[in-house]
Amino acid sequence: MGDPRPSATIEQDSRTWQLALTQQLDQLPTNPARADFVYDKLQYIQMFRDTIQEKLGLDIDEIVTSFRAIDTALPDQQFTEAVVTLLDQSISRIREADPALWERIQRRAFVREGRFTSLDDEDFISYGIGEHGWAHIHVSPGRTLGEQKLSLIARGLLTLVELLKQQDDVKGVTATSPLVASRTYGSLLERIGFTLEGEIDPALRAERFRTVPQDTPIHSASLPKGKYSDAIRVLESLTKSAVTRER
């Protein structure tokens, strides 16, 4: 599957990814620690080894073997450069040939590393229960999902609210994201019964959304448990409409 984006954009994505990985590795104290960190990341790509082999002819196990062969006794900078170069060559092939597959791998990693519970097969919507007693919705990268995003959100929220309705110890559902700030998704949440609470606290933004550009608004919303029944009725209607459109 070809990527219709201009090559300059692909190259920019590659540079951004290399810089992000380099910064993560630089924060670790030793090369063995860096090797363990990367190996943990590679497990998510290995989960899709058969698909990658079939679609791209790329043997992920060989890449892992090559990675393991990089000598951790090398000077720190040299080791990091060797790791980043090797991984970028393989990841660039996946990202350029099948952006949807690469994004799916990212979603799987996001959900597993966050120890969240996925609400759909695409790992687009997931949730976790916070110490404050509220369920928090998490949205994974979904640029390649297109129009599926709205139906995935509706179905995922329906599954979650029906589940939480049986749990008296959860106070409600919260959402915090640039999507909440958008007209499309903010309006959808409001229709379901969420209260839109506007821009999040600057300290929370600095702690949890460091990679989001400062000019991108991040809003929060909440749905208390007392509104579950009304939310379920709206979500059932939305999911039925989505099924009709897909036929």
Structural overview:
This protein has helices at residues 7-26, 31-46, 49-56, 60-68, 76-97, 99-114, 148-164, 178-181, 183-192, 202-208, 228-246; strands at 117-118, 125-129, 135-139, 172-177, 195-199, 219-224. It has 2 domains: 7-104; 116-246, Aminopeptidase (3-Layer(aba) Sandwich). Strand 3, helix 7 and strand 4 (172-177) form a beta-alpha-beta unit. By secondary structure, the protein is α+β, with helices and mostly antiparallel strands. The chain has a 6-stranded mixed β-sheet with strand order 1-2-3-4-6-5.
List how many beta strands DSSP finds.
6
Sheet of most strands:
6 strands, mixed
Rg for CA atoms: 20 Å
Percent in helix: 55-70%
Per CATH, the architecture of the largest domain is: 3-Layer(aba) Sandwich
Shape: elongated
**Mean of all residue-level pLDDT scores:** 88
CATH class of the largest domain: Alpha Beta
Assign the CATH topology of the largest domain: Aminopeptidase
Low-confidence stretches: 1-11
Summing up helix and strand content along with how strands pair, one would put the structural category as alpha+beta
H/E topology pattern: HHHHHHEEEHEHHEHEH
What gap, in angstroms, lies between the N and C termini?
A: 24 Å
